[in-house]
Design a protein that fits this description.
This protein is of the alpha+beta class and 108 residues long. 12% of the residues lie in helices and 26% in strands. It is globular. The N and C termini lie far apart (37 Å).
Length: 108
């Protein structure tokens, strides 16, 4: 039997398999589970335990950003527009969201 705390987490947490690697994407704000208004701008953290990741990545998610705020010089279909798998995973829940890595180099 599964413990109640595992069926209904108190904090948002997702186990991810991205490009053949496993990681944890989590938040520290419990309101993200129950109050849709907190989904405008919020913070998530990603950790995969790989040697190249020296610290947990702190991500800021903005679900109300606009496409015209992106770099106008970049063609969305160009190879230079490739996004990290963790960003694409986040966009499966929050389509169109922008992800800021807050000074951490995005890893693929």
């Amino acid at each position: 039997q599964v413990c109640h705390g595992l069926r209904t987490p108190r904090l948002p947490v997702w186990l991810c398999s991205l490009s053949g690697r496993h990681g944890v994407l989590f938040g520290t704000d419990s309101r993200l589970l129950s109050d849709w208004k907190t989904e405008r701008v919020f913070h998530l953290y990603f950790y995969n335990g790989q040697r190249e990741q020296t610290k947990t990545a702190h991500l800021t998610i903005d679900t109300h950003s606009h496409r015209w705020e992106e770099d106008p010089c970049e063609d969305p279909s160009s190879l230079g527009k490739r996004r990290p798998p963790v960003e694409m995973a986040i966009r499966t829940k929050w389509a169109g969201a922008t992800v800021s890595w807050n000074g951490t180099d995005p890893f693929f």
